[in-house]
User: What shape does this take?
Amino acid sequence: MEASQYLALLGLWIAGIVAPGPDVLVILRNASLGSRSAGVLTAVGVMAGNLVWITLSLTGVTVLIGEADTAQRIIQVAGALFLGWLGASGIRAGLAAGALPARLPTAARGAATGAASAGGTTPAGVLPEGTAAAGTPGPPGRTVTPGRGFVLGLVTNLSNAKAIVFFVALFANVVPAGALWWETALVFALLVAVGLAWFTAVAWVGSVERLAAGFRRHGAAVELAAGALFLVLALGLLLSAL
Assistant: This one.
């Protein structure tokens, strides 16, 4: 491979990952309403999903999936169902947070929002576990833990069946079929390094206290907006499978 091919590959890869989508959305949500560690682990989970797609692409599996309509539709429907679940969870969390008594501190409402999003329940007037009193932000509760963030990031990325089309086009147009093993390894390393750097940066920015505090102050609205976006993405994926 020539240097121009590596540059073209990186350019297409960067354009693909920086575009707003489910990956960026779930990272920002977990980083701002959860914690920096939860956001970073979500980013690692997203990149682990990309790692799977890159490996499948380099071995030619994504091409086979792209040519098998039934397999591709199954993946699309499964991905749409998961994104739909995220959307419904977000809207449920937003409605639950909006219904909390006004006397609860902002940090408590933000943490309770996360608890509802995870499918848990927080009784009205009771501070979720791990939330400091008197409006002082404390560690997130059991909701967006780093481990849960990793799983959400991984499954969110793998549920995006449009990645099949993206990776097939990416490698088919840039990486030659007869690439040497070390060239393939270099492509793998470059994509992983750049992707991990970008998604980690998103998590870091999303967890900056001034920005995160703003998200937590409007936790209900953030959850409702994120839920609605996930539902739109799910609907688009489902329609493309029909």
Notes: Residues 106 and 159 are 33 Å apart (CA to CA). The chain has a mean pLDDT of 76.
